[in-house]
């Protein structure tokens, strides 16, 4: 793996202000079908089985009969808790496995003296709110100060100690959002913002940085930097007066390994012109994908002849060397997709049945547009 | 329709979709601008016409003709009663896409 570098052209217009149905449980993210909260505070998360890895992970949450149950981070939408898993059940519905996980949020003891501490140094006084603000920025977009600052017991390192909160549920020794992008963008650029958002929300709650997250917006990514907007309320300490508000806006440098930034490459910022952008008169070769689909063997024979005639006739033409034909016969819908991906043709030629409703027939009728269409389509020559 | 979504997703290289099938006009009309040009048949076309159309259309392209000209050539090659079944889309073509040869000189 190459060292992380920022690609200035990494951009993504997506703006995410909500984590949707994504859930963080333990160290796993998954998409929930439903999250219910009972009156007694018990939370039930339902999820469809997606793959074996997730199934195994969820199975592993099953509380042990002997021994105390362990606690896990749980984040959903704008809230996060430490939870105990009280039950993991699964049932099958319509051939799919559906998981149901029951969680009991733990009530965290209200901040002890170590939880919220002001720091006074020769550089000035940092209140607990100041420390929380620095930590919030760290979670969202600020990288920790360079290691050089930690060499001696300086005022900076005393503040840094409080920002990081060592010994807590989560040590904020790095930018949480940046870390999440590094981890999830390579495989899931589509939902990475949702996952990073949940990771940040867990970090806010786990470190008691804020009590309520009012809004957290991630995106868009511009030139390798993710725009971040946050608004959250600290816990109310004094009966009179509003709880302190933390409002932050900044950009998080996304340090992604270079090979993983490729999928994020957007056509509009790709500097090398694509084939379709080139003048239409200058392709070196014109690739034609000839596709036939017909369950009817008579039609199949006629289509075979059509393809033969096309190829034979073009052979006599002046630019024949620059015309390339690829044939795909008895195509199912999926075969068409594979052939389009594999051959990247300039021309797609489809021969087969067309129905009066404007749909095409594939070998497996998987076009999706004529499910109820049981009738035998007229042969092409029927008209 | 899945076919349309698939074409839209993979439209990078595609410049022309030819639907040599009965009643494919409606689908062909929906393809641009996903893919710049599309040809469909407005009714049920006979097999001899469908073959003659395809043969002469690609021959004309291989001689460096534009899609528009190739369609005209192909129309002239099909059975008399089928010539106006071949439809080229988009019907409005301000960019002049129909007049550009697919295969250059």
Topology record:
The complex is a heterodimer of chains A (about 375) and B (about 100).
Chain A: E1 4-5, E2 22-25, E3 28-31, E4 34-37, E5 43-48, H1 52-59, E6 71-76, E7 79-93, E8 96-105, E9 119-121, E10 124-126, H2 128-140, H3 155-164, H4 176-184, H5 192-206, E11 212-222, E12 225-233, E13 245-253, E14 256-257, E15 286-293, H6 297-315, E16 323-328, H7 333-343, E17 347-352
Parallel strand pairs in A: 15-16, 15-17
Antiparallel strand pairs in A: 1-14, 2-3, 2-6, 4-5, 5-8, 6-7, 7-8, 9-10, 11-12, 12-13
Helix pairs in contact in A: 2-3, 4-5
Chain B: H1 2-9, E1 16-20, H2 25-30, E2 37-41, H3 47-62, H4 67-75, E3 86-89
Parallel strand pairs in B: 1-2
Antiparallel strand pairs in B: 2-3
Helix pairs in contact in B: 3-4
What would you note in describing this structure?
The complex is a heterodimer of chains A (383) and B (105). By secondary structure, chain A is an alpha+beta fold. Chain A has three domains: 4-18 and 111-267, no CATH class; 22-105; 286-382. In chain A, 22% of the residues lie in helices and 28% in strands. Chain A is built from seven helices and 17 strands. A seven-stranded antiparallel sheet of chain A has the order 3-2-6-7-8-5-4. In chain A, strand 6 (71-76) and strand 7 form a beta hairpin. In chain A, helix 2 packs across helix 3 (155-164). The longest helix of chain A is centred in the last third of the chain and has 19 residues, at 297-315. Chain A is elongated. The N and C termini of chain A lie far apart (61 Å). Residues 1-8, 259-282 and 368-379 of chain A have low confidence and may be disordered. Chain B is α+β, with helices and mostly antiparallel strands and 105 residues long. Chain B has one domain (2-91). In chain B, strands 1-2-3 form a three-stranded mixed sheet. In chain B, helix 3 (47-62) packs antiparallel against helix 4 (67-75). The longest helix of chain B is centred in the middle third of the chain and has 16 residues, at 47-62. The N and C termini of chain B lie far apart (37 Å). The model of chain B has no long low-confidence stretch (mean pLDDT 86). The chains are: A alpha+beta (383), B alpha+beta (105). The interface between A and B is large, with 56 and 49 residues.
């Amino acid at each position: 793996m190459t060292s992380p570098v920022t690609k200035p052209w990494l951009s993504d217009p997506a703006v995410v202000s909500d984590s949707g149905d994504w859930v963080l449980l333990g160290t796993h993210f998954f998409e929930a079908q439903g999250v219910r909260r009972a009156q007694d505070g018990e939370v039930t998360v339902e999820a469809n089985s997606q793959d074996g890895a997730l199934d195994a992970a969820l199975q592993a949450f099953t509380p042990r009969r002997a021994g105390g149950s362990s606690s896990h981070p749980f984040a959903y939408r704008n809230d996060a808790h430490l939870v105990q898993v009280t039950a993991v059940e699964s049932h099958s519905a319509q051939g799919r496995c559906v998981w149901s996980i029951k969680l009991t949020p733990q009530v965290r003891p209200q901040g002890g003296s170590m939880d919220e501490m002001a720091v006074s140094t020769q550089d000035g006084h940092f209140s607990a709110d100041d420390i929380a603000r620095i930590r919030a920025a760290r979670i969202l977009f600020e990288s920790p100060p360079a290691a050089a600052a930690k060499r001696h017991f300086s005022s900076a390192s005393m503040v840094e100690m409080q920002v990081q909160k060592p010994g807590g549920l989560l040590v904020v020794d790095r930018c949480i959002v940046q870390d999440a992008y590094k981890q999830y963008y390579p495989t899931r650029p589509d939902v990475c913002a949702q996952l990073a958002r949940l990771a940040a929300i867990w970090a806010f709650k786990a470190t008691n940085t804020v009590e309520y997250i009012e809004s957290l917006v991630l995106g868009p990514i511009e030139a390798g930097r993710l725009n971040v907007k946050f608004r959250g309320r600290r816990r109310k300490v004094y009966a009179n007066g509003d709880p302190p508000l933390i409002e932050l806006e900044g950009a998080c440098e996304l340090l992604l390994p270079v090979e993983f930034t490729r999928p994020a490459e957007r056509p509009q910022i790709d500097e090398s012109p694509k084939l379709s952008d080139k003048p239409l008169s200058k392709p070196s070769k014109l690739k034609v994908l000839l596709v036939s689909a017909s369950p009817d063997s008579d039609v199949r024979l006629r289509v075979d002849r059509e393809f033969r005639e096309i190829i034979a006739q073009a052979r006599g033409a002046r630019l024949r060397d620059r015309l390339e034909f690829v044939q795909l016969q008895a195509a199912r819908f999926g075969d068409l997709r594979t052939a389009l991906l594999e051959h990247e043709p300039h021309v797609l030629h489809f021969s087969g049945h067309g129905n009066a409703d404007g749909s095409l027939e594939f070998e497996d009728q998987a076009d999706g547009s004529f499910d109820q269409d049981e009738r035998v389509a007229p042969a092409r020559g029927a008209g | 329709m899945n076919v349309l979504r698939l074409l839209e997703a993979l439209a990078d290289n595609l410049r022309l979709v030819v639907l040599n099938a009965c009643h494919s006009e409606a689908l062909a009309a929906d393809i641009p601008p996903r893919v710049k040009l599309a040809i469909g048949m407005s009714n049920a076309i006979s097999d001899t016409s469908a073959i003659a159309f395809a043969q002469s259309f690609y021959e004309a392209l291989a001689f460096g003709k534009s899609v528009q000209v190739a369609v005209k050539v192909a129309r002239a090659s099909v059975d008399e009663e089928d010539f106006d079944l071949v439809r080229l889309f988009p019907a409005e073509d301000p960019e002049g896409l129909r007049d550009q040869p697919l295969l250059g000189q």
